[in-house]
User: What shape does this take?
Amino acid sequence: MDKHDDPYQEIRDAVRSLCAEFPDEYFRKIDEQRGYPEAFVDALMAAGWLSAMIPEEYGGSGLGLAEASVIMEEINRCGANAGAVHGQMYNMGTVLRHGSPEQKQKYLPEIAAGRLRIQSMGVTEPTTGTDTTKIKTTAVKKDGRYVVNGQKVWISRVQHSDLMVLLARTTPLAEVKKKSEGMSIFIVDLREAIGKGMEVRPIPNMVNHETNELFFDNLEIPEENLIGEEGRGFKYILDGLNAERTLIAAECIGDGYWFVDRAVKYANERVVFDRPIGKNQGVQFPIADAFIEVEAANLMRFRACELFDAHKPCGAEANMAKYLAAKASWEAANVCLQTHGGFGFANEYDVERKFRETRLYQVAPISTNLIYSYVAEHLLGLPRSF
Ligand SMILES: Cc1cc2nc3c(=O)[nH]c(=O)nc-3n(C[C@H](O)[C@H](O)[C@H](O)COP(=O)(O)OP(=O)(O)OC[C@H]3O[C@@H](n4cnc5c(N)ncnc54)[C@H](O)[C@@H]3O)c2cc1C
Assistant: This one.
């Protein structure tokens, strides 16, 4: 799109200028150290970018999903990884949509001001995986508190968050009419919980993504931390997923453009057989192909944003945007690596780092097969398989 026609150019320019303070070397070093980009995250919070979607009455910017997605896209397009921060952008939506007036007043202004981090959402469990309604973590009401027991896995940013949205079963599966009933969500104050009923074990992994196993042993949560009605938590979580998927699609789009830009630059500069490698159609066509795929995915991402911001159903578009964008960014990553030849493997080019980072989105927050399954069943009317 022409720079002058882009309604989000102002946001893009502002995020880019913040990101420019954090060059490739910064993120490379953090990756090598398996660290967390504290200074970068602090800068994003201080500038208010992560409270974009919090309404103005609570101190946020009251922007839509489209604007929020542009922020995420630009972060990844600049060479960073929004995986360190994206929870802050969408987890607050659960409180906003389903929290009580008291909860909103208590948490949202603090989140908007960047004084409180709500980076984590605890859903996945080791023994049940994608089959979420079978989760085994329970929360039992007792003397004005809920007592939580169980285990979660792959829960991200817990060590860099103050609050976590937790999904637990409050009514046993055998006692509910529909398997999606009987689960509830809670705000867990991590500052109080860790070491007092909740244990955190980091999971070393392929990406520099802070993610953990969580163990709950009689963790007590005050009753007032229940969000919405008891038993309706699964529905509330699902409500938030469209925003999450669309934002992550935008991150993949940002990655996709980053890979294409780097591939083009290298293909123009690298001279072999007395000419730039980009002169060979065997090198330039895959880059053109990757660019086309990213552009196409981008259209679906903005379609999902448009529907979400108009308060219309957007489950199909959000899922398809996530699918297309994750696929396009992964293909662009492969092309970029191939274009760089051996240097694609060298840390100093950052291609291998971004390659690892973008691969995650074929699996999390929802794996490709589960998107196929959603489309097959809900859009095409094929028989339910599980
Ligand atoms: C780095 C990282 C960060 C994460 N952060 C979070 C987080 O913050 N919070 C959180 O709650 N979770 C988080 N997750 C978990 C993530 O959402 C899950 O890994 C993902 O949803 C897949 O679930 P699973 O790993 O249990 O795979 P499984 O459910 O065990 O599935 C394994 C494979 O089998 C396929 N499969 C399973 N069943 C079917 C079927 N019926 N038909 C076809 N294929 C099927 C899946 O598509 C997948 O490819 C994170 C994961 C990672 C790796």
